[in-house]
Amino acid sequence: MPQCALDLVKLLKEDGKSVAAKHMAEQVVEVHKEVKLKLEEANKKYKEVADEDNRKQVFELGDKVMVFQRHERNRSQRWLPTGAGYFKNNDDGSYDLKTTKAAVGVICRNSEGELMDGFMESSYCSSSLAAEGKVLSAAC
């Protein structure tokens, strides 16, 4: 039994599907395409404004440049113990470019963290790579 006058109206159907529903679905797809295009245009404008302050930098081989690096936070970390019966070597080397002087140091700790042995040496080197090599030879 129909409950209102609209229930008595025969809707146009094409192959068992409502023509109005088909048109509505097509309109929704078109609206989505328009919205996507508008968003892309707006993003292009935002990018242009943001890129005004950034200039393109092209470097050639041999150019001298100044690099600004952020300071890494020197986080202190407690010594982590190794497995029982093992030793842990901490070694490091530094090199001063102006004086060509290098310093190397090695510390050896046991599995309880007790200092077993240590070594420090200061000498002249040709490069920082040579200073690191001295550290490795001293640690072995």
UniProtKB/TrEMBL annotation:
Protein name: RNase H type-1 domain-containing protein
InterPro entries: RNaseH_domain
Gene Ontology molecular function: any one: nucleic acid binding
Species whose genome carries this gene: Hevea brasiliensis
Domain RNase H type-1: 90-136
Keywords for the protein's UniProt record, in alphabetical order: Coiled coil
Keyword flag Coiled coil: yes
Pfam families documented for this protein: RVT_3
Residue stretches in coiled coil: 25-56
